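WARN  no MSA supplied for this record, continuing single-sequence
INFO  ligand: flavin mononucleotide
INFO  echoing inputs
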Amino acid sequence: MSGDYMISYEAEMIKDGRSVYIIIPFNAKEVFNKPKGTIYVKGTINNIPYRNKLISKGNNVQILIINKKLQDLLGYCGTIMKVELMITEDNIISDVLDTQDFIENCKLDVISAISTRKSIRKYTEQTITDKELNTILNAGFCAPSAKNKRPWNFIVVKNKDQLMELSKININGKMLQNANCCIIVCGDKILQGTKELLIADCSASTQNMLLASHGLGIGAVWCGVIQNSDWRKQIVKQFKLPESIIPISVISLGYPKEIRKSESRFDLSKIHNEIW
Ligand SMILES: Cc1cc2nc3c(=O)[nH]c(=O)nc-3n(C[C@H](O)[C@H](O)[C@H](O)COP(=O)(O)O)c2cc1C
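INFO  complex generated
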């Protein structure tokens, strides 16, 4: 099957530990022609958008986790409810999984990538393709996070007017004017309630994306978002961030128009053996 699949049914909201889920009332493997592997889906439940993967319960039964936000929006009542489910396969994820050729063709080993990465602030006009962008985003998703909470969300901004607007009030973000696109890394305060850990998780994700960009030959620079700054307020307003979401970094991206050589930063004076 391709395209959207719409179904109306009485769905039981099942609570299993901390998760709440509904059972997909058809054989999703057959319907999506995906006998093996994870099925990523998106659509609406009672007109409320969702995006997730299906989880197999065996015997061709697939379930869809209803996260806390969706529960609130749906008015979760813990019983059977009438559900209008629009479901379609999420092809963006398929595109990411299709990035194997980048991995195979990448000539940069991880140690070289780490030691040759430099912040790039000047860019050519060359467009970053969606496939490249998805490879970078996938690296962001691969980062470690405290208790594996993965509290990040990424806003991809390609629109030139939006990039220009974003660059205006931050003197340290001027390169965004000429960036091909940027990724705003946001942290979800509900998913990760400890602020230090939220910042650490999103920073690990940011660094992964800088390295992935470098591996693809794409220039990138990390722009920090200071928590009480006007820039932070602007980002919240410009990109309509909900109350529970905080912007943590902005990654400016583009094909490099400058060559920056890396220098050795190994510093023996900062290495302490066994004790300070
Ligand atoms: C938390 C953080 C915030 C940063 N903010 C900015 C920024 O606002 N603008 C900028 O041009 N570079 C920013 N940078 C990049 C640093 O200036 C850069 O990493 C540093 O000068 C070392 O250079 P390199 O990245 O080329 O090794 C930031 C880096 C980090 C880690």
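Residues 195-215 form the longest helix (21 residues).
INFO  checksum written, moving to next record
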